[in-house]
Amino acid sequence: MPAATYHEYLAEATAAETGRLLPAATAAETGQFNVFNIADLLATRGSRPPMSFGRRPFYKISLMRGRSRVEVADRTVEVAGPALWLVTSRVPYRWHPHDAEQVGCFCVFTDEFLVPVKGSLVPDELPVFQPAACPVLPLGEDDYAAVAVIFEKMTREMTSGYAYKHELLRAYLLELIFLAQKLLPPTAATLAPPAAARLAARFTELLERQFPLATPGQALGLRTARDFADALAVHVNHLNRVLKDATGRTTTALIAVRLGQEARQLLRHTTWTVAEVADGLGFTDTAHFCHFFKRQTGCAPGEYRGGGVAVSI
């Protein structure tokens, strides 16, 4: 990704000026990675509009303390205490601070930043970056302090003249990622065998690549378990077995969950009619879609539109 494009997305995502976030000299040194203080950015945002709901072409890890609301895909989380929030480029999101009393830091980076050191590690294969994972992890005081120390080291290193500063920043970033992974519930942190994990990750990538739907009438290229198996060059039963072992769900169930998630996003964040949403998601008729949606959510599309349930942590 061109650095200019990255910086533009970064400015919009943090409600601050691009030049302030990544001065030219710093950008040339550090590439597509940076770390910021939340309070400093809020103090300078002025009358800029709130963060828009959408995807950004980078990963973001935030250490937060304060009252705020996090919206990730179709989920809304009310944050009332210390928390760690991780998000990838695969899901749309936005952050709403409820007041000016916000403390913490966040870092942003692209997948390419980890290329020199990640080896066989693919961030999107880690449970902590899966779309179904809890986007916000509540922290105790000890864990908050441990994460804060990593951010402090990152912040200091950003302005150092150390010849291997980029390697050290990558090491700090990996430390942060694996600490977050350690904080996941034990069942969520279990990794599948490497080959199976790669196949599951490729399936997820193919599934996520089709979203979000941008305009009514946009067709999904892959809609069924067989579609995905053919695209991945594996037998449909093998794909189903791998996904069942890795996620606890069948291929069809995972597709249905993602279709339901996209339906909720379209109903909440667009003006599409229910019929347009149904057509965009590949349903043959609106009645079939309404039945599917009610089975997924417990309510009809019309009832859901404009609503949303927040989960406090």
UniProtKB/TrEMBL annotation:
Keywords: DNA-binding, Transcription, Transcription regulation
Domain HTH araC/xylS-type: 201-307
Superkingdom, natural source: Bacteria
One MF annotation (Gene Ontology) recorded for this entry: DNA-binding transcription factor activity
Signal peptide per UniProt: none
Annotated Pfam families: HTH_18
Protein name (Swiss-Prot/TrEMBL): Helix-turn-helix transcriptional regulator
Organism per entry: Hymenobacter polaris
Organism taxonomic ancestry: Bacteria, Pseudomonadati, Bacteroidota, Cytophagia, Cytophagales
